[in-house]
Amino acid sequence: NPKAIILVGGPSRGTRFRPLSLNVPKPLFPVAGKPIISHHIAALSKVEDLKEILLIGFFEDSVFSSFLQDAAREYPNLHIRYLREYQSLGTAGGLYHFRDEILRGNPDQVFVLHADVACTFPLVAMKKAHEGHRGLCTILGTRVPRDSANNFGCLVAKPDTNEVLHYVEKPETFISNLISCGVYLFDCAIFDEIRKSLENKKGNVETDIYGREVFQDGNKLRLEQDLLRPLAQSRKLFVYETKDFWRQIKTAGSAVPVNGLYLEQLLQASPEKLAKNTPGGPEIVGAVYIHPTAQIDPQAKLGPNVSIGPNVSIGKGARVRDSIVLDNVDVKQNACILHAIIGWNSKIGCWSRVEGTPSAAHNSTAVTKSGLKIQSITILGKEVSVKDETIIRNCIVLPHKDLKSSCENEIVM
Ligand code: GDD
Ligand code: GTP
Predict the structure, then answer these.
(1) Which is the most buried residue in 169, 242, 256, 285, by most CB within 10 A?
(2) 3-class SS at 160?
């Protein structure tokens, strides 16, 4: 039986996701109506015989407890747990540290998924491809524009066999536009390779006063450089290329395009989960998710690419598109929210505008306007209030701010 691991990171990571990560750990931020990692779990739940998912990270245990309760209710056949690293151990350090837990029950394969990616997670197809070759690992790959390739793990593969000939993590010069999506399927024999790679690493493993194996400071075990690279060298790494969408979720603003892609996918697969135009209801354009507890005035207009959270109230004549509106937000009449994320409990006054600037750039949420780099998605932190008839454009606003006058291209602290 295969198992799965989601690498959720910890509080010292996700800094680019501020100010939203001040109030919720990034893996639990909602896109298309549910936490980021729920999309991972939904895909894993479709893999035959997969019964156990381990979240590995260095957040406090309490961070995931209510999420895990909800997940247990939604997926009664899956056993989902959180394993906490006592410190950041690197992308493969946690795998090694918890190897006994992972190998319990003798799984034959393990999926490893980064929490901060969004895609269709074609895991079943990956598994099929994996079983058709003799590699120890199948890595999900995608093509990105040439000028952004160097921000990722780059792969050079044999076109006929998909065997990976070179793996280079964030290379300085261009080597390939085929990159790693942060989604892998490993044979369990991988743990022998991890052990070997550890022994090769200078400094090696030490035992601390509690008898735990630790890596010397600054000597984390990195999945990419310490494991994938040697795997490619020994011809045990294969790529499965997806043609579907793929995005990283690094900055807070990147949640908006990701929200749009997941909503589009839902519109095709289960349109019943999305808002519809009904007589006497608000006007809905394209893919829009509205939480059942939200109150939307029939004269408001929403969409495309809009998610409305629990207990939100949207007033008469308001317009929302390409935006995420989080729990308990109050949007007064005729307000306009475009290309924005509105934090929990915020209040948007009537006739005000909170807006960003649409960006066509792939995997980027900054745009350049008259030579200046500006924030393309406007983000309001938790409990921000925007006065009536005020315009907030291309701004990031920290929590608890009272905006009484208009602002543009600013970080409001
Ligand atoms: N448990 C745990 N412990 N998780 C970690 C740790 C750690 O010490 N460090 C990072 N992670 C998790 C992050 O939360 C994230 O989900 C994932 O591992 C990778 O994060 P980064 O280390 O920030 O790498 P990256 O996103 O810049 O690049 C990686 O992902 C790209 C795809 O998104 C690389 O694997 C690239 O090769 C790849 O293209
Ligand atoms: P529609 O006119 O809605 O079909 O779309 P459009 O192609 O004009 O969309 P665009 O992206 O240009 O504008 C977004 C929407 O926001 C438009 O539909 C406008 O009606 C609406 N809008 C723009 N400014 C305001 C505003 O200040 N208040 C309100 N309530 N709505 C606005």
Answers:
(1) 256
(2) coil
The DSSP bridge partners found for residue 373 are: 368
> Cβ–Cβ contacts within 10 Å for residue 383, how many?
17
HEC-encoded secondary structure of 57-103: ECCCHHHHHHHHHHHHHHCCCCEEEEEECCCCCCCCHHHHHCHHHHH
C-alpha distances out from residue 38 to 65, 68, 74, 268, 326, Å: 14, 10, 10, 19, 17
More confident residue, 354 or 212: 354
Distance of CA 336 from the midpoint of ligand 2 (Å): 8
Residues having CB closer than 6 A to ligand 1 are: 7-9, 13, 56-58, 85, 88-91, 93-94, 114-117, 152-153, 169, 179-182, 224, 248
d(CA 125, CA 136): 16
- What is the rounded distance in angstroms from the CA atom of residue 36 to the CA atom of residue 318? 27
In the chain, what are the helix, strand and coil shares in percent, each to the nearest 5? Answer: 25, 30, 45
Q: Which of 277, 254, 290 is nearest to 32 (CA)?
A: 290
What pTM value is reported for the model? 0.90
Under a CB-based contact definition with an 8 Å cutoff, are residues 385 and 403 in contact?
A: yes
Token pair 């969004």 is found at: 118
Q: How far is the CA of 332 from the centre of ligand 2 (A)?
A: 16
Token pair, residue 94, equals 């946690």
Residue type, 356: G
Residue 115 CA, closest ligand 1 atom number: 16
Q: Tens digit of pLDDT for each residue in 294-340?
A: 999 999 999 999 999 999 999 999 999 999 999 999 999 999 999 99
Measure the CA–CA gap between 390 and 347, rounded to whole angstroms.
Answer: 12
Please identify, by atom number, the ligand 2 atom nearest to the C-alpha of residue 353: 27
pLDDT (tens digit per residue) in 101-141: 999 999 999 999 999 999 999 999 999 999 999 899 999 99
Backbone angles phi, psi at 25, to 5 degrees: -65, 135
